[in-house]
Amino acid sequence: MRETPRSQGTAGDAWPVLPQPRPGCALAHTTGASGSGSPHRSDGRPPQTPRGARHTDRHGGPGTTPPVPGPPTVHSPSAPRAPFLTPLALLTPLALIALLALCTWQIAAHGPLRTYDERLGRAIAGSALPSPVAEFLADLGNTAVAVPVLAVALGWAAWCARRAEAPRWWLPPLAAAVAMAAVPALVVPFKALIDRPGPPGPLADETGFFPSGHAATAAVAYGAAALLLHPLLCPRLRRPLLVAFAVLNLAVAAGLVRRGYHWPLDTVASWCLSGLLLWTVLRVGRLSHSGRGSGPGPGKPWSPRAAPSDPG
């Protein structure tokens, strides 16, 4: 191979020079065609793969496309969780306790609220609601009717949660069962303490009508069943379920007062007690699914549709 002759004036006194890297060769993958540090092709053409178009972010990690800036966030197991009780969450039980205390005080002290309550009870008892219909509505608060409904809901919710591998799947059904068992433990002492006489009717000579055991049984049984079934239904059926629960309890109360089994405030006091029990069931259910991992997140009810199809 012929070599290009160098000038005689400089050939003898030239110093050896180390080879310098040329742009567009191996270092073009790190410095780019212009040496500006951009990870594009060495020939200046646009990249052919999405990987070549990615840029490093300010943290030095792999860049991401908008709208997710920065490196991926890693949740630490020691990260603080949402509090179980907040001031806003405590408003409901405090309001129920205040209403229950007001009703109890007025009934025990023969206050003006008791006078209006008895007037309203007599007006409802003389209403045009047919007695057979009122009897049927009142019977919906019997233990033999309400408890089997709750038992079916307990079994179905437990089976669905266990199949979906929900965390602590047994806790919400257990809380609902304990709430149902607590109804007589709360109602019987109130009846003995207040010892209110019954309205005119088949039980007029008896006492111990405040609060209503039938109204409390219906509210807790059907309410706990609604809370257990609520996350298992499709979204368009959840609101009708809660509306049906409210209408059903109003119907039971109307049947009890129409048949002369209770005064109106007897049922209101039962709703206050039942509301405290159902609030506890709801909070326990949310607590059972507040763990991290496969659960749906803090404060959210479990739904089998949110469970992964492959646990592994």
UniProtKB/TrEMBL annotation:
SUPFAM superfamilies: Acid phosphatase/Vanadium-dependent haloperoxidase
Superkingdom, taxonomy of origin: Bacteria
Coiled coil: none
Region ranges (Disordered): 1-79, 290-312
Bias type Pro residues, positions: 64-74
Annotated TM spans: 88-108, 140-161, 173-194, 214-233, 240-257, 263-282
SMART domains recorded: acidPPc (SM00014)
Gene3D superfamilies, per database record: Phosphatidic acid phosphatase type 2/haloperoxidase
Keywords, sorted A to Z: Membrane, Transmembrane, Transmembrane helix
All copies of domain Phosphatidic acid phosphatase type 2/haloperoxidase, residue ranges: 171-282
Name of the protein in its database record: Phosphatase PAP2 family protein
Organism (species): Streptomyces endocoffeicus
